[in-house]
Fold this protein.
Amino acid sequence: MRILQRLLMMVVIIWIAASINFLMPRLSDRNPVEEMIAASMGESGGTMEGIEEAVADFERRFGMDRPLWVQYANTVYDAMTFDLGISISYFPDRVSTLVLQALPWTMGVMLTTTLLAFVIGTPLGALTVWPRAPKWVNAVVPIVMILAAIPFYLIGLILIYVFASRLSWLPTGKGYASGLLPDWSWTFAQSVLTHAVLPAMSILLASIGIWALSMRGMMVTVQGEDYMVFAKAKGLKGSRRFWRYGVRNAIAPQVTALVLTLANVVTGAVLVERVFSYPGLGSLLYQAILLNDYYLIFGCVYMLVLTVGFSLMVLDLVYPLIDPRIRTSVTD
Amino acid sequence: MKDGGVMKGLSVTDLRVEFYTDDGIVKAVDGVDFTVRPGVRTGFVGESGSGKTTTALALMGMIEPPGRVVSGQADLDGLDILSLTEEEFRQQRLATVSYIPQGAMNSLNPVARIETQILDGMADHGHHLRGSEAADRVAELLAQVDLPPNVGRMYPHELSGGMKQRACIAISIALGPRLLIADEPTSALDVITQRRVMETLGKVQETIGSSLILIGHDMGLMAQFVDEMMVMRDGKVVEHGDVADIFGSPEHAYTRQLIDAVPSLQRKPAAAPISSPRQDRPTDTPLLELDNVGKTYRKGRSRIEALKPLSFRLDGNKPRVIAVVGQSGSGKTTLGSLVLGFETVTQGTVRFDGENILRPGKDATSRFRREVQAIFQDPYASYNPFYKVDHVLSVPLRNFGVARGREEALGHMVEACHSVGLEPAQTIHRYAHQMSGGQRQRLMVGRAIMLKPRLLVADEPVSMVDASLRSIILGNLATMKAELGASVIYITHDLATAYEVADYVLVLHKGRVVEAGVPETVIGDPRHPYTKLLVDSIPWPDPNRHWGAGGTLDEEFAAVAQADLSEPTIIRDEVAGFQLGQGWTG
């Protein structure tokens, strides 16, 4: 019953968000088809004659000559069937192909780094206020806190300068070395990994401190609770008090934040992907917006909407496991 | 139940604990010596700041910086526990010395089942139980504290206050310690639950044969429960001896003072003369009128009748203090919320000064909010921590147009502080967290007085403060009545304070008024079995008058259960200016 309710909720959220996403680019008075054709004609050195007809022809093929509500109905139908149409800027590639090509790159780097940053940052933040924490915590935490204050694209630029330009240890950008073709070989895998190191590091360095900071605040509150005193009076070992009584109670808001961050992973850190010319969804979305490619924008954002909706549903279902107090109020 | 080791009990010599603060060294415990013989219950009594809790924490090895145990020995059955290292001390906690915390409301880990919280303590002392062995041990411990075995699978929020406290006792006796330290274990519980928890604690202590230290400020509870008593003040022992001797002939004036601070049914202070009865209102409209007012909560398909239809009229020409007495769940707080308009009635009408408070006429809302003031139980939760006191006080002054301009507002604030005995200079520019719980609660009373209300709803205003403050705050309420001519609806679980301040008492049980009358008859000579149970559960500050004069708790509960719930209210007597009725349309 509850799952059904949540599913319905998710569908509604996705529908509303997708509708907004449909309307927004169309409010702009730019004509993407005209721009595309003009650009390609300009490139091939052709004249501008006949451009009107060509534009009209393309518009008909994209269905852009029809009334807005027909376009909307089509889009809704397409969205439901996950057929996202043909990209204007990458004509004649399908949007779904483009999105699915970019997705693994973004997921690989962003998902891993977000989870890693959470797993490292959360206990670190909790340890900063734990009376008998190891000494190294006091040395490490100020550094990650400072890094958290620097935008990650800036950290990315510094990393490129130091490790790619000056030391030449790692490549400056792109998903893999330009001479290679994607396949399942060891050389290709190695290339992908070395190319992922710098973007991953820049996000990791910038976000560990943020997780640590928010956990620290929650842990301070938990430390003042009566059950922490009783846990000590029970003669519990320090590690059990820290994890099972402290972290366990402080973690709920962290998990909420984690799920929301994961939901946004899909569009990636657009700026990071730009800085490293990484072939992920962020770069794709950036391109699409530059050219006002309705269909591609819709495809990228639709992906985001799907993950946000899905993540929120997962969060709703997972939360009672984290906090038993929610469990009973739900069954009431 | 430890074997080995000689049972000599606890003997503490020259215990000193100091706290290093910005204002210098505070000697929280200043050279304390005492012994607790095996199997004996000793009470540590004193007000907050007397050092009683600090002494206990030192015995648990739990003094945290900036505090430090400066000197002293604590010999427990041949082991000097104060000389132990941190890890050695950890192993002794629970195994040898156990602690039953104050405020059981928050002492259990909210995200772990009770069985987990029993077993984890055992596991960290080398007793790793699994499967049926673990389940059996949990059930056995829960049975010792009169809890059914299924409580083990529950989370703390699924338990009532009394059950949580008993779960805490079960946790702390898991390894059969030789010394139990109970730190105000019943401070937030009503008298009946308190009696049940204390009976459980006493039984458990006798079963495992440990010594017990009960920390508290309630002399009544001490008289009922402990064998010996140690009175502390400013970190020193004032008096230590047999409880009957101390109550019989207290040697120290301070002890006398503590005993006298307990509200007692023998002494009723003479009613203060009413100096300025208000004449500024028409006499025919009652101040507060409840016409067949009831409240039913729906939870899914089940309905909970929190308050059965109730009617009364409070004239307000003569100020009255009406006490509404009952346990948690009796509907007393619901009644208060309905009068304040915080909850909507399911049936009936609440009228203030003739106006239905849910459909007030023009200007009536603002007048209602000003003329009806409230004081709540928790002086910590009543304040917005981001604002200073002057903001808390000046907002109502501004909103109700009481004061124009800062000067006038300040004058009102200073007056408000004086009215409750607070020093304005040390109060107005502070944040709530910079004041003690007692100061905060007094300020709440001062805030209410400042607005010169005609009706005050006080919901358990003194259940979280210690004895001497309790009498000050109750005194403030009496002042409101006498000097402002304000009537008070005093909601409490504490019959003794109701006896002291009330003109009329309503005893509420399961949403119904079971007995009503003036305190002398209702509390002095209760008729209804529920009122009897309440009165019998008051911890009398007299070691010779035991709990359960009217039978054991179970017998009394049985009598309450047998009482007919449809029976009309036993109305003992009437008081001018207040009428309890069967419903009328005004």
User: Anything to note?
Assistant: The domain at 108-279 of chain A is CATH 1.10.3720.10 (MetI-like fold). Chain A has a mean pLDDT of 83. Chain A touches chain B at residues 131, 225-227, 229-237, 240, 244-245, 248-249, 322-325, 328, 332 (CB under 8 Å). Residues 186-223 of chain A form the longest helix (38 residues).
